[in-house]
Design brief:
The protein has 528 residues and is of the alpha/beta class. 23% of the residues lie in helices and 26% in strands. Mean pLDDT is 89; it is low at 1-53.
Length: 528
């Protein structure tokens, strides 16, 4: 009998199983059957001691028989919202790169937009965070080591706006909307209120651990954000959320726009936004998000306790956004146990993360680090959305998916871009995470996550993402499902492959998979 091996780095090959009557015990890795002796073989000397027949080491073909990745679709978890990244500190200049390449006749900004938002040739991000600035780029006030960390604001006077400002960054949210055919979440986030609303008159604090805005200005801060959101929606930009607070535990005395907040300040600002948006019918489908704490540990529990102690906020926030910096796996496990025990109806999202390591890296090393954090956040915290800090950066840090050279208006994709695509292109909004396990020792350390959903054609899909940081591995899928998947596509990211389709064809329960070492792989099963 023949069984099919689907090799993710090569063509489909056939696997010949041992002869009938020599079926191996699939539960015992050491019990591998050996062929029977041929009938013409001379009989052994009855007086001679019987020679011990050595048991051969199991081959890759043998291991296929008992190495299984199990999927149980009867066990489901969070419903997915989006994968995304922010346009902070790069879109305001890259958005102006409109000179066509003489060979491709495509502008650099268009190339970058397609890589980020196109599902056919890029990674298909389903959300994008727009930095709604406080005006430090207009005033020149404050202490900034990098001028790109300043941001413009649209306001020229209270209630008056110049909508031509921040044009390059606005180009990117418009283009993202067009490429995604409107099927994308645009999130407006603030690092600081408008400079005119702050105590310091700057988009930075001037004293440690103090709030840089008076409570009397909370409503004006909210109104500014609402006015911008309404304007963007009039342009057809699908604004879905406004996030007025960013990492309130840090002092933000220099470096970028930012504002420290006490728990009272967090509650006061969020309450002003939640109450104020009720009077904006044009924003009926826009949500307020927060508190955007910088880590899952530290002061985060204090922020959540303060939010849930407020009558208005506890009835509004069933989902909270936090960042995955400075947090290991055990801290995440402790945090989610606490949250589930104290506020069982509240869920979380990761709205920001990058590796926070100096030095440019274009290799699979940083790609694996990012993928490991994504999988931990999906499976430990049950986050329903995951955002990388920045989509594009100038290099020198393990942050952006794409590094750019501003003087040459050139760009280079990192392995992180394509690794992110193993998740973002295929795990789509509305998909539901399902149970997956890889219990066998020969595929130990195979990272895994699985989602089910329905594609645009109404077909059922099962999407499996695997991270293999070690050697090549072979396995078969064991599906507990009511769906009858019969078609398969496989996409592979390695040092040499850019989310490359390495297989497409029929699938059945006998199909086995071999995945390359040092690879991130997406298996997409479809019920046609």
């Amino acid at each position: 009998m023949q069984k099919r091996i689907l090799c993710l780095s090569a063509l489909l090959v056939l696997l010949i199983l041992p002869a009938c009557g020599t079926t191996p015990n699939t539960n015992d890795k050491n019990n591998v059957a050996t062929p029977t002796a041929a009938a013409t073989q001379p009989a052994p000397d009855a007086t001679a001691p019987a020679a011990e027949t050595p048991t051969p080491e199991p081959t890759k073909e043998d291991r296929v028989e008992y190495s299984k990745v199990k999927i149980d679709e009867t066990r489901s978890y969070q419903t997915w919202e989006s994968f995304g990244a922010s346009g902070a500190w790069w879109a305001q200049y890259v958005g102006g790169w409109d000179k066509e390449n003489k060979y491709s006749e495509v502008t650099p900004r268009e190339d970058i937009a397609r890589l980020l938002f196109d599902r056919d040739n890029g990674i298909g991000l389903s959300s994008f965070r727009y930095n709604l600035g406080a005006g430090s780029a207009d005033s020149g006030k404050g202490n900034y080591s990098d001028p790109h960390r300043r941001a413009q604001c649209f306001e020229t006077a209270p209630g008056e706006y110049d909508w031509s400002k921040d044009a390059n960054a606005v180009w990117f949210i418009k283009r993202a909307t067009e490429i995604a055919n409107g099927d994308i979440d645009i999130i407006l986030f603030c690092n600081s209120p408008l400079e005119r609303l702050t105590k310091s008159g700057k988009a930075q604090s001037v004293a440690k651990s103090t709030t840089n805005i008076e409570p009397s200005n909370y409503a004006a801060f909210a109104d500014y954000c609402f006015d911008v959101a309404e304007h963007f929606k009039e342009l057809g930009i699908p604004v879905t959320e406004i996030s007025p607070i960013n990492e309130p535990q840090w002092d933000w005395l220099e470096g970028q726009e930012g504002m420290h907040l006490t728990t009272d300040g967090i509650v006061g600002i969020l309450e002003a936004f939640v109450n104020g948006i009720q009077d904006r019918p044009a924003l009926y489908d826009v949500k307020i998000s927060g508190p955007e704490s910088g880590e899952w540990g530290g002061a985060t529990r204090d922020y959540i306790n303060a939010i849930m102690a407020n009558e208005t906020l506890k009835n509004y926030f069933s989902v909270l956004d936090c960042h995955s910096y400075w947090t290991n796996r055990s801290t995440k496990e402790a945090f989610i146990r606490w949250l589930n025990s104290v506020y069982p109806g509240v869920t979380v999202r990761t709205s920001e993360w990058c590796e926070m390591v100096n030095g440019s890296d274009y290799t699979m090393d940083s790609a694996f680090n990012m993928a490991d954090v994504i999988m931990d956040d999906l499976k430990i915290l049950n986050v329903s959305s995951w955002q990388l800090w920045v989509a594009v950066s100038p290099g020198g840090y393990r942050d952006g998916l794409i590094h750019v050279n501003e003087s040459k208006q050139a760009y280079r994709a990192t392995r992180r871009l394509w690794a992110m695509g193993n998740f973002s292109r295929f795990i789509r909004p509305g998909f539901v995470r399902t149970e997956i396990s890889t219990p066998y020792t020969d595929i130990y350390n195979l990272g895994s996550v699985a989602f089910t959903g329905e594609n645009a054609l109404g077909q059922k899909e099962l999407v499996i993402v695997l991270t293999n940081e070690e050697d090549e591995k072979t396995f078969r899928l064991d599906l507990n499902t009511i769906n009858k998947y019969d078609y398969c596509e496989v996409y592979t990211t390695t040092e040499e492959k850019d989310l490359e389709m390495t297989f497409s064809g029929d699938y059945d329960s006998d199909t086995a998979f071999t995945i390359e070492g040092k690879s991130i792989v997406t298996i997409r099963l479809i019920e046609r």
